Amino acid sequence: MNLDYLKVFVAIAKQGSILAASKALDIPKSTVARHLDQLENQLSHQLVMRNTRHLRLTAEGQRLYHLSESIIGDLEEVEHEMKGQHGSLSGRVTVAIPSEFGVKWLDESIATFVADHPDIAIDCITSMAPLDPIRRDVDVSICYHRGKLSDSGMVVRPLVSMRSAVVAAPSVVADHGRPASVQELSHLPCISTLTALQANPWHFIDVEGRTIALDVPTRYRVDSSLMLIAGARAGIGFAIIPYEFCKESIAAGDLVEFALDLQPAPLEIVAIHPNRQSISTRTRAFVDIVEQQLRARQDL
Q1: From the record, what ranges are coiled-coil (predicted)?
Q2: Tens-place pLDDT, residues 247-261
């Protein structure tokens, strides 16, 4: 069996069309179609049902795809590993990062990574809403996380931990006083998230080190750290925010930080891979750069 033909077939199955496969492989559409025909002739089976509108795998095509996807991936990884040993990284990395966080902290480091490795291609999805790395075909997601991380079977690499602070505007303190316990917050106006941080940023650490989730009343739910801070400064309610993000507002007197009976759970920044097979040399190198940048920012 010709491995070049098999690689083309796997690309067609992944991309969903001959045209998309030709773009992904950077070869002419006619070459993709010809290689598919040649593979089908070699195997004496039709692998793809195709007409003017749709393309789908036959039963034989589905079986071949399931058997060969990992083989092609392993061969490509061997190639990238060998090139990586000589200081050269190549291939495409699809990453997802929170939009505001990525722009503020990672924009230059990601651009430098691509500039330093001419054979690397980056597809970067920026979104504050959580993504399904498997459905979106993402190699790695850089995510916020607070509290207990759900056991999804994915591979999680911790990057940095950021201290959280419970804060409010002076006008909120004037209206509601200074809470001394976490439970008091459950009866006070608070700011929360809509989908980010599993739709509840309010997590605390008890004296035994366990994570405690708190349900709070809210009429302002946002998946934007900038809008969260703006809401807190405007006096909408109490907020739990990474100290790094709000320390200037605290220093200026626009926000007041509270010492409660339990410590706010830190905001963890993690890299999430769909599975171990997705952790290629180029993906690992990308995450290394992200971690270095985040730790450097923490040390400022």
Answers
A1: none
A2: 999 999 999 999 999
What is the domain partition of the chain in residue ranges?
3-81, 90-155+274-299, 164-265
Q: Note if the pTM is more than 0.85.
A: no
Alpha helices in the chain (DSSP H): 3-15, 18-25, 29-43, 59-85, 99-101, 107-116, 170-176, 182-185, 225-233, 243-251, 281-299
On the CB side of 110, CA atoms within 13 Å amount to: 20
Task: Specify the CATH superfamily of domain 90-155+274-299.
Answer: Periplasmic binding protein-like II (3.40.190.10)
Select from 3.55.30.10, 1.10.10.10, 3.10.280.10, 1.10.3470.10 the CATH code of 3-81. Answer: 1.10.10.10
User: Which among 136-145, 162-171, 268-277 has the top mean pLDDT?
Assistant: 162-171
